[in-house]
Amino acid sequence: MDTSFDMFIETAVPHNELIISRTDLKGIITYVNETFAEISGYKPDELIGKPHNIVRHPDMPKSVYADLWKTIKEEKTWSGYVKNLRKDKGYYWVEAQISGVYKDGELIEYKSIREPISREKKIQMQRTYDQMRKEQENNCRIVSYTTCEKEV
Ligand SMILES: Cc1cc2nc3c(=O)[nH]c(=O)nc-3n(C[C@H](O)[C@H](O)[C@H](O)COP(=O)(O)O)c2cc1C
Questions:
Q1: Site residues for ligand 1, CB cut-off 6 Å
Q2: Per the domain annotation, does 37 fall within a domain?
Q3: 23, 26, 48, 53: residue to mutate for ligand 1 pocket, most atoms within 8 A of CB
Q4: How far is the CA of 82 from the centre of ligand 1 (A)?
Q5: Residue 51 lies in a domain
Q6: Residue 148, pLDDT score
Q7: Distance from the CA of 55 to the center of ligand 1, in angstroms?
Q8: Contacts for 67-73 with beta carbons within 8 Å, 24 or more apart?
Q9: Structural domain includes residue 115
Q10: Which of 59, 101, 102, 121 could form a disulfide with 117, with the two C-beta atoms 3.0–4.6 Å apart?
Q11: Residue 122: domain span
Q12: pLDDT, tens digit, for every residue of 6-27?
């Protein structure tokens, strides 16, 4: 797992722009708008054809995505809070809505539209997801200060 300094840099999500991606039924990205590309730090070409977990952040509990896929496979809309990993290893938080794209009544793709979330919500969700990973995956995020002296 990456533990570099870059992981602690947050990218702000704009309030006035839609952040959109679409995938095929297996979660391979078929479309991203410019705003999605910009926020994730990739060029659209680097994202299209890749699995959407290219932006998966290690702080996200596995069960969140299990619930997401169960919901959308039942052709319902899923919404939830997501911390995503940028290409430069920084992160950004969004509230995502994921649902089906239909052609002649048939489910052909999935689409996701995202919005920024408040600072309070980010803090709450970071705590919630840390707790969920601890309980469900025995996985703990440790951020600590230490002296600079070399270990002997
Ligand atoms: C339309 C759509 C959008 C998605 N958006 C994201 C996203 O922004 N970030 C993310 O980590 N996973 C997203 N996912 C879920 C991923 O497909 C994947 O399940 C998740 O990253 C966990 O990776 P894993 O299934 O390989 O464990 C999206 C799925 C769909 C169908």
A1: 21, 23, 27, 52-53, 55-56, 65, 68, 82, 84, 98, 110-112
A2: yes
A3: 53
A4: 9
A5: yes
A6: 85
A7: 8
A8: 68/98, 69/27, 71/98, 72/98, 72/99, 72/100, 72/110
A9: yes
A10: 121
A11: 5-137
A12: 888 999 999 999 899 999 999 9
Q: Give the chain's domain count.
A: 1
Q: What three-state secondary structure class fits 93?
A: strand
Whose C-alpha lies nearest to ligand 1, atom 10? 56
Mention every residue, 6+ apart, whose C-beta is less than 8 A from residue 130: 59, 140, 141
Q: How far apart are CA 22 and CA 96, in angstroms?
A: 12
Instruction: Find all residues with CB under 8 Å of 55, minimum gap 6, and list them.
Output: 40, 84, 85, 86
Say how far apart CA 36 and CA 14 lie, in whole Å.
11
The residue-averaged pLDDT of 19-38 equals 97
Looking up tokens 């689409």 gives 111
Question: Tens digits of per-residue pLDDT, 68-124?
Answer: 999 999 999 999 999 999 999 999 999 999 999 999 999 999 999 999 999 999 999
Whether 78 is covered by a domain: the verdict is yes
How many angstroms separate the Cα of 107 from the Cα of each of 103, 104, 113, 141?
7, 9, 17, 38
CATH number at residue 84: 3.30.450.20
Q: Which residues pair with 97 in a beta bridge?
A: 79, 113
Atom of ligand 1 nearest to the CA of 94: 8
